Amino acid sequence: MLIAATLAIFVAMLLAIIRGITGPTLYDRILAVNMFGTKTVLLISVLGFVMGRPEFLDIAIVYALINFISVIGVLRYSDTNQFKHIPSNDDTTEKEP
pLDDT of 74-89, one tens digit each? Predict the structure, then answer.
């Protein structure tokens, strides 16, 4: 059963990588990276349980905190003008018949 859970986590991680590469917007990519980090925490926890190493849970918690703080940092940085999309005026002008 744990092997099936591990394989499911790997499939979800693969889908997150695909979404991160092909995401249409920056926020989709950031969400995919966050999902990949969450699945990594789950994978570390499952592997720690399988191997009988409870200290892996501490590593997973630290990784989760680093993942959370890095995503918040990237979102704050992406809020700058460098990443904002400003539509051109050509799209909003009315065309006369």
Answer: 888 887 766 666 666 6
The tokens for 2 are: 């744990």
Handedness of CA 11, 16, 22, 23 (dihedral sign): positive
Cβ neighbour number for residue 8 with a 10 Å cutoff: 13
Between CA 79 and CA 62 the distance in angstroms is 26
Supply the pTM of this predicted model: 0.75
In tens, the pLDDT along 1-27 reads 888 999 999 999 999 999 999 988 888
Percent above pLDDT 70 for the chain: 82
* First-to-final CA distance of the chain: 67
The whole-angstrom separation of Cα 67 and Cα 36 is 9
User: What is the distance between the alpha carbons of residues 35 and 17, in angstroms, rounded to a whole number?
Assistant: 9
Q: How far apart are CA 30 and CA 18, in angstroms?
A: 12
